[in-house]
Amino acid sequence: MSLLRRDFLRQASGGLAALALSPELDALFPVFRRAEKVRIGVIGTGKQGNRALEELATMEAAQVVAIADVDPGRRKRGLRRAPSATLHESGVALLAAGGLDAVVIATPTHLHKDLCVQALAMGLPVYLEAPLAHDPAAAQAIAEASAWPNAFLTCGYYADTNPVYKRAKDVFRSGALRDLVSLRGHWRRKTSWREAAPTAEREKALNWKLDPQLCGGLPSEIASHQIHTLRWFTGFEPELVRGWGSTQLWQDGRTTPDTVQLHFGWPKNVLMQQELTLASSIGGTGIELSGTHGTIRLAGRHAWLFKESDSATQGWEVYAHRARFHQDEGYVLLADATKLAAQGKLQEGAGLPFTELYYALQAFVAAVQEKGPPACPASSALPATLAGIHASTATASGLEVLLS
Amino acid sequence: MSAAPLILGLDAMRTRFELVLHGENPVRLRAAGEAALAEIRDCDRRLSRFRPDSWIARLNREAGLHPCPVPAELMELLQLCAQVHENSEGAFDPTFRAAPPSTGSDSESSTAGFSQVHLDPDQQTVTYAHPGLNLDLGGVAKGWALDRACEVLLEAGVECALIHGGTSSSRALPNPPPQPAGARGWRIALEDRASIELQDRALALSSNAERGHVVDPGSGHAVVAGGLAAVCAANAALADAWSTALLVQHPDTFSWKSIP
Fold it and tell me: Which of A264, A268, A284, A288 is nearest to A276 (CA)?
C-alpha cells in the first residue's frame, strides 16, 4: 500500500482535512482511494472463493492481484471475476510469488492449516473461511499461529460483522428476552452436496465434504456457524452435545448423513436444538433465541424481535417496521435503519443492502488498511469450530460428548 | 448414454428454469445439474433489481452519484447490452427512470436511455449520467444465467443438455439428444409458426400478447400486440437482448434473426 487514508488525513492541512472527513471524500478523491487499495490474493476459487471475488470486485479499497486453484476450470472461472489477477496453480505458489498485502483462503477446510500457518509466518493478514479446520489439532495449530506477534487472522463466521446481528445482539443484551428459555437453529437445503468433474480423480478431490476422513459433514461445516452466532450473542459456551444422523434422501453410496439433529446443552439448563438437512429446503436457514419476554429470529440479512404480550415496551418499537409470520408479529431489527433510509439504501422489509460475506470482507479490508483488530479472531472462532467437530463425532458415535 | 433424461428445475427470476440432461452416470449428472441450478440462482441474486444486495440494486443506488466498481462479469454483460443497444438503434434499452417526469416529456426525455450509462472497462466502473436513471436487466438476465449454467455443465463434463428459462430462453449444449435417433439437435417449436433444431446454440423468443412486459424505449409504453420475435445466437444473453429489440421494432409480425 502506498498511501493509506489515515496517512492522508494526518498529512492534510486543516481545511482540507475537514473536507476529507466529509462523506464527499469518496467522490472528490478517487485517486487517493485507488492508491490505498489493499492487494489481495485469493486461494481457492470454488464456490466460496468465487463469491469472495465477486464481493471484493465491488470494493474500492480492495484489488485482487492473484488467484490460485489446483483446478484449471476453477482458475478460469476465477479469472473471469478478477481479469487482471495473476494465476497460480497452488496456494503455496501464490504465497511464494509475493506482492500481496493480504490473503483470502477459501480452500476445502482440510487444506486450511498449512496455507494459513504459512501466510501468517510471512506476516500476511489472513481471511480464513469458516470453520478454522477439520480436526482439533489443525484448528489449535491455526489458533496458535494467529497468536504470533503481529499476526492477523479473521475467520469467516459472519455474526461479528453482520450489522443486523449487531443490532439484534444489542437488543438481546438490553434484556429484551429476559431469561433465556431455548435456542434453535435450522439449515435446510435440497441438494446432494456432490460436485461433478470430468475425471474421477478430480471428482474425488472436489467431494471432500462427503469424505468422513476429510470433513465432519453438516455438523462441522454448517452447524459451527450457528454455534458461533449463539456464543457471540449469549457470551456462553455449549457444554455438551448429542447428535443423530440419517440418510433420508441421498442413497448414493455416501457414508455421511444427509440429515442431522443436534442437541447442545448450554449453561443454565438451556437446550439448543439444531436441524441440518440436505433433503428438504422449505424453511431455509434461521436461528431463534427464545426468552421469557420474547424471541429473536435471525435469518442472514434479516432479524426480528417477537415480544411476549406481558413484556415491557422499550420505546423504539413504536417506530419500527413490523412483519407478520402466521399468528406472530415481529419488529424488524435493522442497524442504522434511519441512516440507510435517508440515503435511499433501505427497501422496507428487504434487509441489508449487501451480503453477509460483503460485510465480513469489508471489515477485513478495513482492518488491514487501518491495522485494526480482526472482527472474528481465531480465539473467538476456535470454540465454535471445535464444537462443530465434536458434534460430528457425537453424531457418528451416538454418544454424548462433553465440550470442555 | 441413458435414453431417459434427468430433469431438474428451479424457480428464479419470476419464472421456471428447467434442465434436461443426458449422460451415463446419474449421480454425476445430478451433481452437475445442481451446480448449474446454483449458478442460475446466483445470477438471480446478482441481477435482480428488487434485491437490495444485488449488483444492479447497488448500481441503481450509487452509480448516479459516483463511479461504481463492478465485477468483470457485469461489465461484460453491460458491454453486450451497449452493443445491442447501438446496433438495434436503441430498440433494446435496459434503462428506465426511477419516477415519472413531473413536467412535459420533451424536457425529460434525455433522463433515460442506455447512452446515459457510462462504462469504463479500464477502471471497471459504471457511472450513470444522473441519479434518476435505473437499470433493469430483465431483458437479458435469463439468457445470461443460461450461459453461465452451460459453462458449469461443460466444466463438469456434461455435453448433452437443453436448458430453458420459462421456455422463452433456451440453450443447447454441443451433443444432440439420443432420441429420436439421428436428431441433429433439440427440436423446439416456435409456438405454432415454425420449429427449429437447436444444437450448441441459444434461442430466445419475445412475445407480448398477454402481459405487456416489453417496453418500447421510444414511447415508454408497453408493447402489447400479437407479434413474436425469435432469435438464434451463439449465446443466450445475446439472443435475449435481440429478441426484445426485434419485438420493439416489429410488434405485430413474426420476426426471425439468426446471429452467427
Answer: A284
Smallest Cβ distance to B72: which of A83, A195, A350? A83
Contact A191 B34 (CB under 8 A): yes
From chain B, pick out residues whose CB is under 8 angstroms from the CB of A345: 52, 61
DSSP assignment string, A285-352: EEEEEEESSEEEEEETTEEEEEE-TTSPP-SGGGGS-EEEETTEEEEEP-TTHHHHHHTT---TTS--
The domain in which residue A242 lies consists of 160-351+378-402
Cβ of B27 and A53 within 8 Å? no
Average pLDDT over residues B207-221: 67
At B113-145, the pLDDT tens digits run 899 999 999 999 999 999 889 999 999 999 999
Last residue within a domain, chosen from A127, A157, A187: A157
Question: Distance between CA atoms of B230 and B244, rounded to whole angstroms?
Answer: 9
Query: Please, are residues A288 and A311 in contact by the beta-carbon 8 Å criterion?
Result: no
pLDDT band, very low/low/confident/very high, at A314 (cuts 50, 70, 90): confident
Nearest residue in chain B measured CA to CA from A81: B72
Q: Is B67 on the interface with A (CB under 8 A)?
A: yes
Report d(CA B61, CA B133) in Å as an integer: 9
What residues have CB less than 8 Å from B205, skipping those under 6 apart? B167, B168, B169, B190, B191, B228, B229, B230, B243
Chain A interface includes B28 (CB < 8 A): yes
CB B134 within 8 A of CB B95: yes
Q: How would you label A216-237 residue by residue, b for 16+ Cβ within 10 Å and e otherwise?
A: bbbbbbbbbbbbbbbbbbbeeb
Q: DSSP character for A184? A: E
Select from A101, A124, A157 the last residue of a domain.
A157
A34 — pLDDT class (breaks 50, 70, 90): very low
* DSSP three-state, residue B16: strand
Distance CA A350, CA B113 (A): 28
* Shared-domain flag, residues A119 and A234: no
Mean pLDDT, all residues of chain A: 88
| DSSP letter, residue B222 | B
Give mean pLDDT, residues B239-250.
94
**CA atoms of A176 and A196, how far apart (whole Å):** 48
The cell 472497462 sits on which residue?
B121
Question: Cα separation of A34 and A1, whole Å?
Answer: 10
Cβ atoms of residues A57 and A390 within 8 Å: no
Average pLDDT for A92-120: 98
Note whether B31 contacts A198, CB cutoff 8 Å: no
Q: Is residue B62 included in any domain, yes or no?
A: yes
Tell me if B247 is assigned to some domain: no
Answer whether B233's CB lies under 8 Å from B201's CB.
yes
CATH number for the domain that contains residue A73? 3.40.50.720
Q: Closest-CA residue in chain A for B61?
A: A345
H-helix or E-strand spanning residue B169: strand B169-172
